[in-house]
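pasting for ref
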Amino acid sequence: MLKDLLIAGAAAFAMAAAAPALARAVVGQPAPAFTVTDSNGRSHSLSDFRGKTVVLEWTNAECPFVKKFYGPGEMQRLQAEATRNGVVWLTVNSGAPGKQGHLTPAQANALMKREGFASTAYIPDPDGTLGRLYGARTTPHMFVIDPKGVLVYAGAIDDTPTANSADIAKARNHVRAALADLAAGRPVAVATSQPYGCSVKY
C-alpha cells in the first residue's frame, strides 16, 4: 500500500514537473522578448518595435467572450483606432492543434478577411511558446507594452466580465484607456486587472 502511494506520488510529481509553467510578465518591468512568425510567414521581434506601443491580444474565434467583441465589431474598431495612431497590434492564437479555436495560418487569414480584422498581424502560436512566456490565461487576455519596451498593462479588455455584447457600451475598456494614457504622456491609471474569458487551449 505504502509502495503504491509512493509510486503514485512520484508519478504526480513527475507530471507536475514536466508540465510547462505559465510565466507571468510583470507590469512595470521590461516585457519578455520574443520573435514570432505571423500567418503570412513574416517574422516579428519585440525589439523591432522599439519606440512604438505594442498590444498583444490573445484570441480564440470560438470563445463566446471573444465573440462578444468581434461580433459587433468592437475589437476591430479598437484595433483600427490603435493602428491608425501607430500602435503595433498583434493578435495571438495559442490554441494547440486539435483544441478549440486552433487555426492554421490559411484559416487565420480567411478569418481576418471575413471579420475585418484591423490588427497589424495574426500570430499563430500552436505550441504555446508566446502564451506561456506572457502567462496568457484567457481569451481575450490583453497586454500593452510602452515605446520603451516596458509592460504597462496586463489583464482583461474591460471591467465587465460577461459574454454579452450589450454590456460593452457601459464598460470601461482598459486597453483603450491605457493607450489614451500613453498617448497623453500619463501613467496608465489601471495597470492590471483580472482577465476573464475562455481558458487558453494550450
